[in-house]
Amino acid sequence: MAKRKTRRQQIVDLAVLAPLDWIDERTGAVRGTKWFLFRNVPRDVSWAQTLGFATLIAFLTQTLTGAILAMYYKPDPNSAYESIEHITNDLTLGWLVRGMHRWGASVFVILLFLHMGRVFLFGAYKYPRELQWITGVLLLATGMLMGFTGYLLPWDQTAYWATVVGINLNGTAPFAGPWLAQFLSSGPEIGGDTLAKWYALHMLLLPGAIFALIGVHLYLVTRLGVVSPPWSKEQAGRERPVAEPTGARAGLVRRGTEGGAK
Amino acid sequence: MSNPRHDTPHSSGPSLWPIGFAIGVACLLLGLVLSWMIAVLGAVLAIAFGLLWARDVTRDVRGDVPEIAPETRVVADELAPGAVPQHKPLPAYPRSKFLEASLIGLTGAMGAVLTLPVLGFMVLPSFTNIDEDEVDLGPLDNFPEGEYVIATYLKDPAQGEVTRRTAFVRNNGQSEAGDPSFTILYSRCVHLGCPVQPNGPIDEERRIELKNAALLPVLAQSFGCPCHGGLYDAEGNRTAGPPVRSLDRYTFSIRNGRLILGELFAVGSVSGTGANARISRYPWSTPGVHVDGVEAWLYPIVPSQVTG
Fold it and tell me: Which residues fall within 8 angstroms of residue B142, CB to CB, at 6 or more apart?
């Protein structure tokens, strides 16, 4: 005879599992989440493999703080600087959110480079992960463009002249350079339409591109798994001394059979 | 197949039609800026080569027609008793293939109709909507002979301070031909566009306010850029630092005894001074872009040549 469920199990079934089943049956969301998150990883992963996720969190922080800042920022040449001053000096917590966005931008770019360095040094760009590397390079380029376009928005002297120099640097590219520069500054030089254009690039086009690229990048990570580091003994086929984690990590790591990502 | 050994299906070799198509599209885009004649030519080229290309690409598909027996009804009186009906299979184009092609084609066309004007709106105004307002710097008496005057003005007063520009104006007196001569340098450094400063004391007391401009006499025989150390002499020639040409200059005109600023042009170099200066003039281009020498080959067409 089947064991009777306890009352607690019945409540859990009714309140949690039943709705989840209902959703999963119709969308596959629960199975999808499990596929995405509950993956086996090689046992010799380290903190180095968390850099990509850290970059993602930095980007999501930028998205959130940026969306909120956009509620107070005015992308107009005659009021942009004042609106930034207003955010920083007058509005409650404005200094904090603007600071998060401003310093978070540097954190994001630094983490991008650290993550890229990790992938390079671990050889994690090799077959079959070439497209992960390529989407990563595109993410790096769009991320740098985010920095470039965002730098103009405070509309102070530093922002203005740094952007003048940046645009004219682009302008020295052979053949297409002067055309690119004129497109970026909406005319021969920075004028009334430039700020709004850069705001739109910074707020809408580039984040859209980054989101799409992150989607592809993460799909590939999930599909292909995490790489063991190059010095992995298990990957090399050598047996490691059995050392089960102890303390708080006890039971968290499952020993691989032949090592490496399966 | 004539040669039985070559009976594996193969795709056709590359053709030149895509290149013609690309040239047509390029002509069309250039024509949108230059003149409608070139645009029409480009459109015709693009359509013609596009059709040829499409015809080329779909040759295998069109050739590979499955043989489907047409639905025919045997008409009784045509069928002589004992005769075997002769069914010649007619070439047929299956409905599924037609629907697939028309769906892809129509969606592509609709997508192009929707996105091309939008992309054009993103790119073209930067090249087509360039205001060429002339700037009035007031009577000629404002400019003492042989002395530089800093003129700051709003290029487009409606847009506000963002269009403030600075020129350095020097009255050279009369040229040998007896015409009035002015040296009018643009303050943008031709290294990367920072604001060049006159190296000398500014005479604040002789400041002159005009409607959309202000004039400030300055005692300067050279100009320096604060960003990367570019230095220019009184004619705008580079004397030190990274600039790649001489300072940009304005054309000017004199109307009713008032100095009117015209358009900007780029200067390769200047020999001689003042009214006797020989200026190698080029279409205006982005700072940092070479206008003369071998490096200028890297910039065969710059926007100001197209937009005028």
Answer: B149, B208, B215, B259
